[in-house]
Here is the input.
Amino acid sequence: MDPKDPMERLLAERACERLIIDFVHRLDLGEPSSVAELFTEDGVWQWPEDGRLVKGRDALRAYFGSRPADRLSRRTMSNVLVTVVSPDAAEAVSYFTTYRVDGYDGGMVPAGPPVQVGHYEDTFHRADGAWLLASRTLHLPFGGATPRANPPLT
Here is the structure.
């Protein structure tokens, strides 16, 4: 991959953008533990301000798989900016907003304010033609406790 070639750079940027979106889709709509497959074998997820550091696919699978089964969440990703830095490395910054409740048992719940607003800083590595997350760092300037779901609207 030649990062100076506009088409190759565009394809690399799109592959990395796809990982960013696939990550939140798996958390919100899929099997949360499966986000581990989007990382390199030694991939890292961290939240420095909270002291959380999760290393390696097995640890990532366990960490994200431990989310409460009754958690309903939806994330909105925006302002995704991927920069290809070499043929096999890229970086990205993206903003996110998280709406989330625990205790969800179906139906529609009243909308409340977002629980989190922040950004991710990501690094990507390409191996055998596939781009994967090497690290994902959470920065959370706006955050609060996850509320319990109110009774569904009728």
About this structure: The two ends are 54 Å apart (CA to CA). The chain has two helices and six strands. The CA atoms of residues 47 and 138 lie 5 Å apart. The longest strand covers residues 72-86.
